[in-house]
Design goal:
By secondary structure, this protein is α+β, with helices and mostly antiparallel strands. It is 53% helix and 11% strand. Helix 11 links the parallel strand 12 and strand 13. Helix 3 packs across helix 4. 29% of the residues are buried.
Length: 580
């Protein structure tokens, strides 16, 4: 959705920055300003300053700075537009959308969210009906009170093929809408409910909307899958979501770490005992997408998986993925129980805290696992022990690789060089670098092209000014070329934005990129100065390209002495211009 710039400016102007930030940071008056501990990095002495007069904040510890809107966007891990919409709604301030298909898409999603919310309400109400006492007793036996069930919107899907669909159709939803969010399935003999006779767990998106459900059977029928998740939809991609993230991850951020568990009941039990920073992957192996989601909230993870053979293998796999993204990883080992849920029910909160404090750093955990029963006097066994670490070392940064290689060498009485030779073939860091590229820059763009398009979007007259210059705009980016073509043929200013909204011109990724670009035009304060700087940069770029061409020409062995002399002189003059 693209909103009028005046409305966004009005929103920023009318936000009380102390009030917005005060919801997340304990602020104390310090002269004309307010001070507190920065929520974006750990600090003992407050260095986070809010200036209500200028309507800005600045952390003198980590350098984070901005206004109330950018703070809200970052602290809640929101897209810019999501932050705008939420703050406008909270403060009852108007937003006027520029016409386009975005409105239709947003309205469609809002209806889907409401549909899923209504379904969750239906499932929850079922559990309190007398005829469904069996489901309520199941949760009660797992330590869940009525208040807890309502807070987490736990529910029950009836043992009926069409109970949910009948209810939702009466509420005015269509079969097509129910199929789109995977609440009903299409069968040869007719449509039927996806979930039947199961305890229901709503799954939330990072922005706090219900996007799917998980269901668990009440008994241990080996012929039926114990857990069932919603199939993937336009709202729900299993590999990119986690169960149990509350308040958009602000709790995890506040605690400074997250407990990563295996199942819904582990997470709910942890939350019930106050460990509300617990999350779980959705009944599948932990994925890169889930690691990327977690790193938005914390870099510190305690793995709390089951301690059986399958759980230990899952711990190793998950640890390798987490180390790829440079998480600090510890492992919680619980003896005498099958999972954290059972441990908490059996021993309670204090014992769990004691166990948490004894969590092993991931390397120490792996070493104690791999070295179990190994005879260190046997060369082959020692080599096998080193080889067990290959997956772990393959995902380390070069710095951590060195640290852990040294530690492993000390533990088994070998030189560090031998460990490195065994675990660090040249190709190992290729994958690491590729993954880094995926994490850090969202999109590789030529900065000069990006800044030029930004100025043209802010004021179309600069497109005409660029065209009149001697230097040519050599825009290579396909998206920018497409945009310039629209600008060339647009007569009215708003026409550009309306065409950006047209579904057939740009795909979803391109639209998002252009929206971000449109809003970034506010960064340009003095248009004329900005234009002069860009003009200078394009001139310099052209000179550098010409110089490179001359350099290539000089390699031609067929050139005469006079020709070489002339080219050398031209190149010399160009280099002088570039340096000046």
């Amino acid at each position: 959705m693209i909103y009028k710039k005046e409305d966004i400016d009005n929103l920023i102007e009318n936000l009380d920055i102390v009030e917005v930030i005060g919801e997340y940071v304990e602020l104390k008056k310090a002269g004309q300003n307010y001070k507190g501990r920065c929520p974006f990095h750990k600090e003992k002495t407050p260095s986070f300053v809010v200036n209500p007069e200028k309507n800005i904040f600045k952390c003198f510890g980590c350098g984070e700075a901005g206004n109330a809107l950018s703070f809200y966007e970052k602290i809640n891990n929101l897209e810019f537009i999501e932050a705008v919409e939420e703050l406008a709604k909270k403060n009852n301030l108007p937003l006027t959308p520029i016409k386009g298909d975005f409105i239709k898409a947003i309205q469609t999603n809002k209806k889907k969210y409401q549909l899923l919310e209504d379904a969750a309400e239906y499932f929850m109400n079922n559990i309190f009906e007398e005829r469904n006492e069996r489901a309520f007793i199941y949760l009660k036996n797992r330590g869940m009170s009525e208040e807890f069930i309502r807070n987490y919107k736990l529910g029950y899907a009836l043992d009926d093929w069409n109970a949910l669909s009948d209810f939702m159709l009466k509420k005015g939803y269509t079969e097509k809408e129910l199929i789109e969010v995977a609440l009903i399935k299409v069968g040869e003999k007719g449509n039927y409910d996806t979930f039947r006779d199961r305890i229901m767990f709503p799954i939330y998106s990072k922005s706090g909307n219900i996007i799917a459900f998980g269901g668990r059977i009440l008994d241990n029928n080996k012929n039926i899958a114990k857990y069932l998740n919603s199939p993937e939809t336009t709202l729900f991609q299993k590999s990119n979501n986690l169960y149990g993230i509350l308040k958009r991850g602000s709790i995890i951020r506040k605690r400074g770490f997250s407990l990563l568990m295996e199942g819904y009941m582990d997470v709910l039990s942890a939350h019930k005992y106050g460990f509300d920073n617990a999350v779980a992957s959705l009944g599948t192996s932990f994925t890169d997408g889930q690691a990327k989601l977690l790193q938005k909230y914390t870099k510190n993870i305690v793995l709390c998986y089951d301690m059986d053979s399958a759980g230990r293998k899952a711990t190793e796999r998950t640890a390798s993925i987490l180390k790829k993204y440079e998480f600090n990883v510890k492992v919680l080992e619980l003896s005498g129980v099958k999972d954290p849920d059972e441990y908490l029910q059996k021993y309670g909160k204090e014992k769990f805290i004691e166990s948490l404090k004894k969590s092993k750093e991931i390397f120490d955990y792996l070493y104690s696992t791999y070295s179990l029963g190994i005879n260190m006097n046997e060369v082959i066994e020692k080599k096998n022990l080193i080889n067990n670490f290959k997956d772990f070392f393959a995902n380390l940064s070069e710095f951590e690789f060195g640290l852990y290689a040294e530690k492993l060498a000390l533990n088994i009485g070998l030189e560090k060089k031998i460990i490195e030779l065994e675990l660090k073939p040249k190709a190992k860091f290729v994958n690491y670098k590729q993954n880094k590229i995926e994490i850090i820059p969202k999109m590789k763009k030529d900065k000069l092209e990006y800044e030029t398009i930004k100025l043209i979007l802010k004021n179309k007259k600069y497109y005409d000014k660029f065209k009149k210059l001697k230097v040519k705009l050599k825009i290579k980016d396909e998206l920018y070329q497409k945009l310039l073509s629209i600008i060339e043929n647009s007569k009215k200013e708003n026409e550009i934005f309306e065409k950006i909204n047209q579904e057939n011109l740009f795909d979803k990724r391109e639209k998002k990129e252009l929206i971000d670009l449109i809003y970034s035009t506010d960064e340009i304060e003095n248009e004329e100065e900005f234009f002069e700087e860009l003009n200078y940069s394009w001139n310099k770029k052209e000179q550098e390209e010409n110089e490179r061409e001359l350099k290539i020409k000089l390699l031609d062995e067929n050139l005469s002495f006079e020709e070489k002399k002339e080219l050398l002189y031209k190149r010399y003059e160009l280099i002088k211009k570039i340096k000046n």
